[in-house]
Task: structure prediction
Amino acid sequence: MNERDIDLREGWPHRAWLASLIQHGVKLGLSNIRTLLRALDNPHHRLRCVHVAGTNGKGSTCAFIDAMLRAAGLRVGRYTSPHLHDVTERIQVNGQPIPESAFAEAMDRARRAASSLPHPPTFFEALTAAAFDWFAREEVDAAIIEVGLGGRFDATSVIENPAVSIITGIGLEHTRYLGTTHQAIAMEKAGILRPGAPALVGPCPPEAAAVIEARAETVRAPLLLAGRDFLLEPRGDFWTPAVRARFRDREWLSPVLPLPGTHQALNAGLALVAVHHACQALGVPADMDTLVPALATARWAGRLEKVLNDPPVLLDAAHNPQGIQAILPALEEAIVLFAVASDKDAATMASLLSGKAAEVVITAFRGSRAMPVEQLARYCVRPPHAVIPSIPDALPVAIDLARQQGRRLVVLGSIYAVAEARALCLACGS
Result:
């Protein structure tokens, strides 16, 4: 959690209370969230959810699913994390963030429910309870719920009867909490699987797939593995991707996707197969041929998002080696503005950049989670072009360098860095 996670805005009490919970950090387990939800009359029991876990691609997959379910005429809730600019972005209905008045009411209800706890909830527990509560009050037809951390003991894992469960893929992340091997992390993420609920798994290492398969058999969840039970075939090129998805006797070809990258083709294909199963579980007589074009309407900021044209400035929330590996074509001979959180594998990330980027400018985002620039600079294989401690100071230097050399600028390493840079770029472009 970072200090920027909540804008206090005029000292509004609901935001002040939520901000006070940041100090409690990460606390995996379901006791608190279950107590909170009981006090709110278990709103999650009144929802049909699409539950999404995975190392990378969760948010993009949620965005693609959201676009298609709305095209089916459904009222769709979406709960994701973290946010770029304001905490209300995390809780949306039909693509619109929760209004401040409704957010105040939902947080006040969560605060009153928390009075029954022996200890204060975490930030994520309170926000998750508020999201379930608001979605139930809004009577959404489907709620797309992104796992915050891991799966098995994540606050969202109170979902008992999902329409479909999804694991986008497995990589090494949050090893302090989830384990240091693909197998250990796969076991945590497989904790979202439920009896009788279809479970879809995107491309992942064989050893991780084996763990998920064993867990699915134990809980009797029908399991569909990419490459075995359904096929995802990226089409187009890196900048204009599309996907052909094949499941049994069905085949769907997407339009050109609005999010660049071959990895987004895989996310969109996984979303296609998930929506096919979700519509069946929800009893929605949807014609997939009418839903597939809606993939072109999906929006997910900060994923190779172009925010300036001269020079081209792209923002990407890649914050681990797997994420950077996915966008390497965008880094070819680019200027990179690089900032990383202190708990990330900065050494591997920096080594990936060294073989692609023309120049790297090292910086840090605001808040205590940022890796100090001196430490990050030591991980660079080649000396960085510049080491500048703050993004407001570093961004103009990187932009000028890109303009002088006629290259694109890519800002990456952390969603916090992307958020800061995005606000500055949008202010310049307005």
